[in-house]
Design goal:
The protein is α/β, with parallel strands linked by helices and 515 residues long. Helices cover 23% and strands 15% of the residues. The protein has helices at 29-34, 36-42, 77-89, 108-113, 180-198, 221-237, 250-253, 272-275, 299-313, 337-347, 416-420, 426-439; strands spanning 10-13, 46-49, 53-54, 66-70, 93-98, 140-141, 151-152, 203-206, 242-245, 260-262, 318-320, 355-357, 449-453, 461-465, 468-473, 479-481, 490-494, 497-500, 503-506, 510-514.
Amino acid sequence: MPKWLKDAVFYEIYPQSFYDTNRDGIGDFNGIIEKLDYIKGLGCNALWINPCFDSPFKDAGYDVRDYKKVAPRYGTNNDLYRLFGEAHKKGIRVLLDLVPGHTSEEHPWFLESQKAEKNEFTNRYIWTNFCFQPATGYPYIGGECERNGTYMLNFFKCQPALNYGFLNCKEDWQLPPDHPDCVATREAMKDVMRFWLDHGCDGFRVDMAYSLVKNDDEVRSGICAIWRNVREMLDADYPEAAIVAEWGQPQLSLKAGFHMDFYLNRPNSGYSSLMRDYGMPERLKEDNSFFKKDAHGDITRFLKEYLPDYEATKEDGYYCLITCNHDTVRPKYNLSDEELKIAYAFIFTMPGVPFLYYGDEIGMRYQEIPTKEGGYFRTGARTPMQWTNGKNAGFSEGEADALYLPVDPAADAPSVESQEADADSLLHTVRELLALRHAEEDLQADAEFEAVYAESGKLPFVYRRGNLLLAVNPSEESVSAPVDAAGRSEIFSIGSGKAEDGVITLEAQSFLVLK
């Protein structure tokens, strides 16, 4: 396990929307470099940069055309190498977004694989034997290639599935994971990882990490075997490199070799019950989110799902909480800044390695806008970072109609500039919370966690991290819990709370840390 993860706090950057330095309306590597001091000042000491490789951008870069070349709109390979170096000078690690399950249909591997004549890439992707033979049970495309067959998709139409094999082969065109051509796919992806690690990258967030081997069993033994093989390479050659899975099943992913896994925002999940218990924006329903002050949410909905995974995997790696990501509606969609302060206090003091999505620290809003590069409903969470109250919210000096996406047009749109001037702002609270996390070892990734008082339909929620006692009350009312905090004193609070005579009491919308 890389030691630096213990005290890591990640900042996720959607590069096309972070900061534009050449006036073309699209964020770039130089823009990230210019804002490294801001990121460090937040308390974030690690970055996750969404896909920045060469791509047709039919899925915002998750359709890779060349794994070893950056997209020109962000700069050059040398610009990215410089970003690694400048970040390291400031004590900031950098993860890139690796997409191992599919490529663009414009990738050179696919252009060779689709040819009628056999070659070394013929089986780099999954093909049936005949042009009218479907890949039963999977999405597929036919009629567009030289080859007499149909090819399987991994997600969108523009993303043909790379071939890591089928654990249970049912057709003669399906190859087992140990077939030399399937092993070659795995080794090609390891070669990509080595390339970036050798140039200064500190690891990878792995897109759709669960999607490689097809017809796998319930415990994903085929897929897990691949990631164990990757972990062996990292442990041997890059022991300080880290990998985090987009998976959401830590009892599989962490035991398969990932250092971290995300708690994903699946409908009706424990994570969704915290901040997004309203359905997708297009089918808004009653909001019962735990951190909505008047929703009467129930923390046990989260704990019933979280605790078994945490207990089963806490020796294997970190199960991580996020404020948001590029696939998830921003939490400001339904929560006020005051509600977000309490939500973030919880997220940043829980076990594992927290991830802060750019702009969430100022409460950027979710925008109802048309799809861009395959974003669909997600597009509204990918708008440009709002730095100032000036032109284009300080994101770009280019013309407004050239921007990758429009900035929030509201007169009261949050910005770093306005929140810097307000000592009670969400931005200042985030900085204080992250400073607390760095200062207290018992709030870091591996310190023990215990739910001390967690009753269905009742508040506050009281939990222990190491020797610290924490209590959270997101509601509009004063609440109390029978918890003995004798001999402890307050080291941090939002709102107001106290501990006396065997009872912890929190006023409305309060958070308390006792040591």
